[in-house]
Amino acid sequence: MDITLYYQEKGNQEPFILLHGNGQDGSYFKNQIDYFSDRYRVIALDTRGHGRSPRGTKPFTIEQFSCDLYEFMEGLEIPYAVILGFSDGANIAMKFAMKYPGKVKALILNGGNLNPQGVKRTTQIPIEIGYKIARRFALKSSDAKKNAEMLGLMVNEPNIGLSELSKITAPTLIICGRNDMIKESHTKEIAKNIPNAKLSIIKGDHFIANKRYVTFNKEVEDFLQTLLSPRQKA
């Protein structure tokens, strides 16, 4: 791996990895880090080129981020983990779960999409305009270049086929806000094509893990409880 990813960690039990969205860092999950740390070893990463993680020289793509996650887990000798991804983090988690099914104990996908068409046009159009402007100035400005890379992730990616979702074998919870920027029909399509996935739509927008964390955490906790054996529950 050409870089070392920055991460926050709390707790010392079963690994629970949190993957943030575009342009964010692991601190987005502050209300999950605290909440789950008594039962899990919660690890909140900063994706390549986000937060305190360096950009490195490898491609700035969802595919590369999923490879980074694999290298990260290997480096920390984490054989498998519960993985919760938000937005682009959910897209990374989907890619990862398809490529490395044995490394995922359970999957929580919050506000993910298979392609840019899954995003409501009212959200996507300003992103596309911003991307075009940033690309125009990318050669002259390092800030514009970075911005173009970030926005490019949402304009050109992800590219996941519906049929690929059948490769996800881990128990999966799809959770989103009723007013999410991802089309509800798109989210339902994802849930329908991941074997035995559970779908939960709660009050709120795209940022339910941060803004409506009490309800969000309860939904996640209830889902994870269903995976425990009777002895573990006791």
Question: How would you describe the overall organization of this protein?
Answer:
The structure is a single chain. A seven-stranded mixed sheet has the order 1-3-2-4-5-6-7, sandwiched between helices. α2 packs across α3 (88-99). 40% of the residues are buried. It starts with 6 loop residues before the first strand and ends with a helix. 41% of the residues lie in helices and 17% in strands. It has nine helices and seven strands. The chain has helices spanning 30-36, 62-75, 88-99, 121-137, 142-156, 184-193, 208-211, 213-225, 230-233, and strands at residues 7-10, 14-19, 40-45, 81-86, 104-110, 172-177, 198-202. It is globular and about 55 Å long. The chain has 234 residues and is α/β, with parallel strands linked by helices.
Topology of helices and strands:
Layout: E1 7-10, E2 14-19, H1 30-36, E3 40-45, H2 62-75, E4 81-86, H3 88-99, E5 104-110, H4 121-137, H5 142-156, E6 172-177, H6 184-193, E7 198-202, H7 208-211, H8 213-225, H9 230-233
Parallel strand pairs: 2-3, 2-4, 4-5, 5-6, 6-7
Antiparallel strand pairs: 1-3
Helix pairs in contact: 2-3, 4-5
